[in-house]
Amino acid sequence: MNSLLFLDRKKIASAGINYLIILFAFVVPISRAGISILSVLMILLWLIEGDFKRKINQLKDNSIIIALGLFIVFCYISISWTDVNNIKDGLDDATKTLRLILLPLLVISTSLKAENISKVITAFLLGMLISEILSYGIFFELWILPYGVGVPHDPTPFMHHLDYATFLTFTSLLLLNRFFATNNIGLKTFYFIYFLFVTSNLFLNGGRTGHFAFAVSIFAVGFLNIKSKIKAFFSMLLLVVAIFYTAYHVSPVFKTRFDQGAKEISHIKADSTSQYQGSFGMRLGSWIVSVDIIKDNFLFGVGAGSEGDSIRDYSLRNEDKSLHVVHDVGNFHNQFVEIFVKLGMVGLIFYIMIWYSIAKINIKSTNLSNLRYIFIAVFSSASMVENIFENQFPMALFVLFIGIFIVASRDKLHI
After folding, report:
1. Per the domain annotation, does 282 fall within a domain?
2. Please, are residues 300 and 343 in contact by the beta-carbon 8 Å criterion?
3. What is the 3-state composition of the chain as percent helix, strand, coil, each rounded to the nearest 5?
4. Phi, psi angle pair for 154, to nearest 5°
5. Domain annotation covers residue 268
6. Residue range of the domain that includes 200
7. pLDDT digit string, tens, across residues 182-220
8. Which of 100, 126, 236, 286 could hold 222 in an S-S bridge, CB 3.0 to 4.6 Å?
9. In total, how many domains does the chain have?
10. Entry pTM
């Protein structure tokens, strides 16, 4: 009797977790509260589900989980040498990665059923579709949401435009990858139209992080799906030029952001007194300042939580007075630089190990394997101009799809 109750409890909990993961995929693009609540519920059901021997066996040899765990542990260790005034920030930083990435990833990677992967991705696309419809409505001033941050000149309904642009970039390239993967003319037409719908939304928004990630990562889609690499390069180059040219002449938001960026770059080239002002200038200035910080803290960094103070201190004492303007930038707007500064070369190696492990896992499904590389390309290129690994929405996106890739590698799917 007890054995039957245990099996029923396990079966019910397992089914509940899978339903929650599908719902989680749906809310990832549209709700901070939904992400938090569902993460907690998934973890609770995961504990109720039990079967920890199987879970531990699956996790102990998982290179992604191991690399992520080492990275988080080192974040905590680094607090021992961070400035005493920044210990709370350091603890918050390390704990954020633990609770928003590692814990929900343990659940998805061990409890998601392989046969539900397609449902999870479909739920994510449905959530994105709702978000995009709302975004278009905001842009064309058809409605004003009772909550959210979207306005006509920046129609991002639920998140900051930097994060939303990254979501749109990944979604558009997911659809383009599916366009190449199918031989069904009807599906090809659907995927390409949906791709254009999402890409148009990307360029109606002001997130230049996503524009940059799109321009870089679309070549990964071409190289993965077109046999001739020369043909792939020029095909994607032509597509990028056509999309950016059209966006510049059709989207007032993109035109304004593009012209603003070009003006900031011209100031940098002209070596003017305002060269480190504006979005591009502040980024460049903080990266220049980071060189001295890294030189002085090469192996272990300044410690989690102290990176903001290090920007202020090093910029204000720099001999180049034009760099003083970056003292209040707050962060380096580059995930790799940010980690190098706060955790040193050791921490950066742990972080790179996470992505290397994702790239090396064996996924039999060509479609999902290609999607894995596209995800890496989008996340990595976006990380070059923004701290994308530290924001809640991108962290949830990371959890969802890395969990899918782990399950796909373990169950040898051919979808």
Report:
1. no
2. yes
3. 80, 0, 20
4. -155, 70
5. no
6. 2-50+112-262+361-411
7. 999 999 999 999 999 999 999 988 778 889 999 999 999
8. 236
9. 1
10. 0.92
